[in-house]
Amino acid sequence: MSKDKALLRRMDSSIDTKLSFTYEDVEQIASHILDRVKCRPKLGIICGSGLGKLADLVQEREVIPYTEIPGFPSSTVPGHEGKLVFGKLSGKSVVLMQGRAHCYEGYSPQKTTLAVRTMKMMGINTLFVTNAAGGINRNYNVGDIMVIKDHVNLAGFAGVNPLVGVNDERFGPRFPAMSRAYDLDLRKLALNTAKEMGFGEFVREGVYSMMVGPNFETVTECRFLNQIGIDATGMSTVPEVLVAIHCGMRVFGMSLITNKVIMEYDAEDVANHEEVLQTGDRRSTDLQQLMTQIVDKVEL
Ligand SMILES: O=P(O)(O)O[C@H]1O[C@H](CO)[C@@H](O)[C@H]1O
Ligand code: HPA
Hints:
Elements: H1 3-10, H2 23-36, E1 43-47, E2 59-65, E3 83-89, E4 92-98, H3 109-112, H4 114-121, E5 126-135, E6 145-152, H5 154-157, H6 184-196, E7 203-210, H7 219-227, E8 232-234, H8 238-246, E9 250-260, H9 273-297
Parallel strand pairs: 1-4, 1-5, 5-9, 6-7, 7-8
Antiparallel strand pairs: 2-3, 3-4, 5-8, 6-9
The structure holds 1-O-phosphono-alpha-D-ribofuranose and hypoxanthine.
EC number: 2.4.2.1
Domain Nucleoside phosphorylase: 42-295
GO molecular function, one term: purine-nucleoside phosphorylase activity
């Protein structure tokens, strides 16, 4: 039996079927991962739908598929490979999540965000999140990149929140503040970097919202989001950010506007995941360049 299989066997075998995870579970998972890699990452990056190509730029790569990590949800969505990629990006030690879990895949909010607490337990204090999102702001174009300045947890309005349940203070406080979730210095760094790179015209700053999905929004839902000041909408990210802020991480987020949402009742177009992936493909080089520059400049 390989060392890895033996380790897995020693772990609580029920860990894979759990809906929520104790501090000790997360400790076990983090040490299982660190036993398998040499890298000691200081920055975590979650890659959104179709945005996992950033991993191609990682040097000294060490890769672990989620299926080999106890408790980790496996990726079921096209455009999410389901791998942890460790190594160097712009000379910094990082771990990239090449693919994320979503609540709409049927995972509990706690399982969806397990990787974030695991990263924290591995010694990571800064988290970059990216996603594909529909453009709600009528001035946005497909292919724009939006630095996230705030979010609306619409899923939370319906009780979907990974912080629900018994609170273990070793993770963080019962009532975490969320008014400064997206770090101001990192937002400024990203916007200035975008300007320097000549990306100013298509890099914006705005508000992201999350509904659980998996269906795309109705016309009236999109009009509602527009009226309450949302610029882009998706089906992810918010649970990850809630958990990251709860455990004291510094967070930066970017959305790629992959499609315009449908705001007219008689429109013939419909939103679809193929368009989301195609836009990701088309803009991936720009996004990779911007991300590597930001990683280069960030102090960890
Ligand atoms: O948020 P990410 O994972 O980037 O993906 C977005 O794209 C998918 C829909 O096309 C959904 O998963 C939505 O959340
Ligand atoms: O239009 C959208 N709506 C919700 N999620 C999305 N993810 C990419 N595009 C969209």
